[in-house]
Amino acid sequence: MEKLFSYGTLRSKEIQRQIFNKILIGTADQVMGYKLKSLKIEEEFGMADYVVAVASENSTDTIHGVVFTISNADLAKVDLFESNAYRRVQVTLHSGETAWIYIEN
């Protein structure tokens, strides 16, 4: 099993049903030393606005989100879902847990 920290789209129940065919149960957590940046991604019907985590020079910058426990197979599904604007890296969360997070590519 893997830990996945989500700060955006993956917290949506609709998106979870689309990707995993189920609703995930998560726990609130934070990642320190990162901040959110606006991002435009071209989609089928035009440009869409999203946010992406980027490393911050300020170690007190914090992103609030949710950490989910998912299978390796589900993590592979998320890799396919995320656009090439994101890359997956491991971080240590405020709780002390290690989790995957998608950051700016």
From TrEMBL:
Source domain of life: Bacteria
Stored SUPFAM superfamilies: Gamma-glutamyl cyclotransferase-like
Gene3D superfamilies hit by this protein: Gamma-glutamyl cyclotransferase-like
InterPro entries: AIG2-like_dom, GGCT-like, GGCT-like_sf
Domain Gamma-glutamylcyclotransferase AIG2-like: 4-103
Protein name in UniProt: Gamma-glutamylcyclotransferase
Organism, scientific name: Flavobacterium potami
